[in-house]
Every structure is written in C-alpha cells, then in structure tokens.
Amino acid sequence: MNTSRARRDVLLVGCGTLALETARDLSCSATVVGAFSLPGEDARLDLPVPHLGPASNIGAFLVMNPVDEVYLATDLLAHHGALSSVVTVCEQLGIPFAVPAHAFRLGRALPLDARSVADGYLHYTLTVSKPLQDRLKRAVDATLAVIALVALSPLFLGVALAIKLSSPGPVFFKQVRVGLRGRLFHMYKFRSMVVDAEARLDALKHQNEQTGPTFKMTHDPRVTRIGRFIRAYSIDELPQLFNIVKGDMAIVGPRPPVPREVAQYLPWQRRRLSVTPGLTCLWQVQGRNAIGFDEWMLLDLQYVDQWSFSKDVALIGKTVPVVVSGKGAS
Hints:
Order of helices and strands: EHEEHEHEEHHEEHHEHEHHH
Largest sheet: 6 strands, mixed
C-alpha cells in the first residue's frame, strides 16, 4: 500500500497502431494497466495489455483504480469528440494525461525542443509544475521528519506509556488511508480511542456534526481520557512522521481520507487526491472541525492550485499556534 513506487501505472485510450507502439515503448518504464477503445475501433488482438471496454467507461474505471497518467494513443482529429470527454474526466479527477505530439511517429527527425516530447507525447498535469521545488519539498520533508522523530522520542515514550496504562489495547493505531492518486497506504497514529471504535461507528452516525461523508463528533464517547488530550493538541498525529519518511505523506498537504469517505466524493472533490497528502493543511489552520465539508474540499483545491514551497513554509508556521491552542480540535 505504499505510494513510493519505482514504476508508474498508466492507461491507454486507443487500441490501434499508435496504442500498440506506445504500449511497447512504455513497457520498460511503466506498467500499462490496460487500454480503452474508441467508437469504431476494435481492440487489437495483439495489443499486449487488457482491453477495458469503450472509452466512455473511463470515468468509472479511474474512480476505482489508481493511475498516474492517461495516454491518448490515437488520432486526435478522428476521435475528437470522444477524446474531449476523456480529457474532461481527467481534468475533473485530477489525473495527468498525454496527447500525441505529432500526427505520425518520427524516426530520425527531432523536434527543436526534444526534451518536452521525448516519448512523442505532450504531457499535461493538473497540479502546479515546479520540479526544483518538488524535490526541495521532498528533501526537506524527509530530513525534518527524521530530526523530529529523534527530538520527540522522549515525548513518544511518555505518550506510549500513558496510553498503555490508561486503557487496554495497542499504543499505535494503524488505518488504511487514501493517498496520492487514490493509492492506499497505512497511516499511523497514537491510539486515542477504545479498541472497538470502528465497530461502534455505525451506532453514532446519527450524531455526526460534520457535513459530507466525514464523521466528526465533539464529545465522541469512543475517545479515551488520554486520547482527548492528545487529540486536542494533535499529539496523536505525530506517528505520521514515519509516513513522511516513507514518502506516503508530506508535512503539508490535504489530510488523507479513509476509503469509505472517498467512495462518497463527488468527482470534483477527488482532485484533492492529485497531490501527496500531508500532516497539516489549510483546513488545519483555518478552523479544522469548525469548517463544513465543502469548504474543506475547496481549501484543499486552493492548496493544489496555488502550491509553492514558500506557502508550505508559511503554513507550517501557522500550524504551530493552532496546535498549541487546540483550536477546532475534537
């Protein structure tokens, strides 16, 4: 369930000659999960990837299957209408896509800017593209997380002891969360609830104080005495530093949701999954549980659309007083 993988998962739209050549070209660097066919186009029997049906079904597929990029491997003019619908779906869900850079495959001929179309495709992303800042963000995240884990080790020991002495059950709580592009990973927290908290959720749903698919309750009876304290000051979130070291999470980014919540997302809300989830975010510093679900999602999309390393630094600075005050926590 780890999001840090060496190979990308890509999807083809098209089942003709260009799709065949693209599948072969990508076989060394990516996993081609399958290909969708376009109107009037028959799936090639020799296409070395599964045929997934008509391109009109791509939206449902992308909602259920994490994909890093969609390649429109066909004649753009011949299938303009169907491909326009595919692009709309990719934009709505936040999935990068690529379109052929040339009307035909080139052999020896080189474009003037060969680096931008190295694989014969023009690549489009739905997030802010800042490669140097991206690398800096990851390096700083990993470094600060390791330093924090070492510096906070006495606090970790004290919290672990308090949890163990105050209620039966494990010290840590491991839960499946949804990360970058919908991939699942295990997120770690200090356990702040009774051990059967998940089983007791259904009985409490009628007391939900949050709009949308998330569950928030100010006086949740499942929270332990120690749990209420560590949740108020976000101490329960500190084990996610391990997730940051692994690359599942970043210091700043939209909070990672649970799968049952993502299953209820509207298409526009899924675009928040187009960046690596984080330990803190705009929602965290602007009210947390006092903010409605739709406003929360809009704040996350604001982060996705306006991201920069300097804004991450500013968000970290704003997080400290919010955590110290316990504002908006439950």
